[in-house]
Design a protein that fits this description.
The complex is a heterodimer. Chain A is built from 13 helices and two strands; from the N terminus they run αββαααααααααααα. By secondary structure, chain A is mainly α. Chain A folds into two domains: about 45 residues; about 240 residues, MetI-like (MetI-like fold). In chain A, strand 1 and strand 2 form a beta hairpin. Chain A is flat, with a radius of gyration of 27 Å. Chain B is of the alpha/beta class. Chain B has two domains: about 180 residues, Periplasmic binding protein-like II (D-Maltodextrin-Binding Protein, domain 2, 3-Layer(aba) Sandwich); about 150 residues, D-Maltodextrin-Binding Protein, domain 2. Helix content of chain B is about 45%, strand content about 20%. In chain B, strands 1, 2, 3, 4, 5, 11, 12 and 13 form an eight-stranded mixed sheet that branches. A five-stranded mixed sheet of chain B has the order 8-7-9-6-10, sandwiched between helices. The termini of chain B are far apart. Classes of the chains: A mainly alpha, B alpha/beta. The interface between A and B is medium-sized, with 25 and 30 residues.
Chain lengths: ~325, ~400
Amino acid sequence: MRSSPRAEPRGKGEGKSRRGLPLLFWRSSRRREEWVAALGFLAIGLVLIGFFVIWPSIRTLWFSLFDAEGFAGVRNFARLFGDREIVDLVRFLRREPPWGALLHNLVWIVIHLPFTVGLGLILAVVFSKIRSWWVGIARGAIYLGIVTPLIVGGVIIRFLFDKHAGMAPQILGALGAPVPWSAGWTAYPETALLALVIGSIWLWTGFSMVLHSAGLSTIDRELYEAAQIDGASELAQFRYITLPLLRPVTLVVAAMTFLWELKIFDIVYVATMGGPGGASNVLALEMYFSAFRELDPYRASAIATLITLFSLPVGYWFARRRLRR
Amino acid sequence: MRSWWRVLGVVLGVSVLFVGAWAEKLVVIGPWSGAEADPFVAVLDAFKAKTGIDYEYRTMRAEDLSKVLPAQFGAGMAPGDVIFMWGWWIAKFADHMADLSDVIADVPFAYVSPLVVDGRTVGVPYVVFVKPGFWYRKSFFAEHGLKPPTSWPDFISLLKRIKAIPGIEDAAASGDGVGWPLSDTTEHFILAYGGVNTFLGLIDGTIKWESPEVRAVFENYLIPYLDYASEPIEWTSALDLWWEGKYGIYFMGNWITGMVDDPSDLGVFALPGAKAVTGGPDIFFVPKYSKNLEAAKKLAAFLMSKEGQELRAAGGGKLVVRADVSPTAYPPAERALMKALEGFTLVSDMDDTIGGEWQAAFWDQLKLLWVKPGALDDVLRVLDEKFPKG
């Protein structure tokens, strides 16, 4: 027997109509309302992102396919990889920098990434174990790096490694280290990039430490208590409880750090301007030189696209991870 | 309801006042700050007192302006009404500049000429800086029995003697900004030992950096000098250190006279054999997008008037460009400098004339050369590679 729609029970029964079409319509109507509401909330954000992120990105990509003579296809990219200022593999294997902006970015990642992620993790764990008045001060001092504007950070790095005012050359000089270790690090090609990387470790470790501290606070204490009862050492607790449970946080920190390193600009601009002789140049600074010194928007766009391409895998992984959650 | 009307009234009143004040306020952008800016600000104050037109002075280096202005021009805007910028850059963006021909019609220029593109005066030289050579403290030289050199061996001997003085770190201080103090020093060496023709040939690209005559200047003169020069130090810090006696001599432009405690203690000498020194103008333009175009032109006219130029001359640190300004308008240090420059030819600063990417490369490569003289081959090669094509 088929009951009339009027005879259908209301409430819970509404979603169980045997007539498919009205149900679909009802559902799609409701969905439409939800979509309209969602779009209403998102509209301003989407318009802003569209204007200030999507449109410039498309234009940049478009520009990168042209040069002063017209459509160039991927010629700009081919030129970049043949340019000593971007990659100088021959010199990389034999002599001190400059090795090209791309290789400098890679060196930056290879040194900076493990140090900031590892140091942040270790500091977070150590500070979580110690109950003392100075822990808050130490945490604040380390976190200061992340709230310091990078332009100021660049100036600090410049002075930190200055021959006269800098702590590092003074200490190393007192220990009998030769030039350039006892001189102005930012003035010498052997030490300029290293000075920037070391300075940036200080600037970014606070970020890693704070995120790991937040992650630590979510780990159930009972796990540690159980491990202690079983006789696990501190190191074993760290290896088998802390590290695996902090893995999601560590991955996020590593991803964010990687993206930060790829687009590094401010501190290089202020501290060394990419010098001496291009020994501390990075991709973002090379992009700036192309755009505002050479007045070549095509090469600058190609470099910008290259930076985006390098960051895409990490960005994709990050987005997928968030969607999965 | 009445309170809403009151709030609206107050908001409207404040807006009218703000807009009124803003409309008449000229924004002047120049590269100087601190003590270096004081003489220019004094001229701006005199303009304000005379015309009642208010101004706001903002410090921005040409390097920083170069990344702000193209986008602003593209949008038909400008961050200021009177802006100081590189000459090569003004010529490149001449379409965006107001024509100032009528403003400077009666100005008798000395040293330099206004920047004219397609019959329009787009840039006006306001003051001239000169890089006369190595500065020293008379008291320091007197204390240690030193004298300005008269020959190249004499110069090297002077450097050796300074270096041997206890407490001295290096005989000569090397300033570093983004690299320009090193380029000034290098240009002085090229002028002194390569000659004016080589210098001009390098500017117009007819002589290569890797050519034997240029290489000889580097190998025989500049690199031996670097044995006695410090590594590049931020130029104002280098100035303080040199003044305190950590270094004996310091190559710098004549603006140094406005930056030391006692300008009367300053002495200067050019490299022995030099017949010319470099210099250049500080050039301003008025963007055609200025919201106060007429007021901006009034300020431009005042800056270039005899009254405005004499006022600037009195502040020291720069030479003004009007030929009818008497030497007596300058402080004693500038008068002495003008006397010291008698017989020298003034040629345009090389890196400012060529500009663009090459200028940045020149600065950067010299920073490398200063600490790695062995990199000379690489440095000269890059300078040729980066030279503007065509």
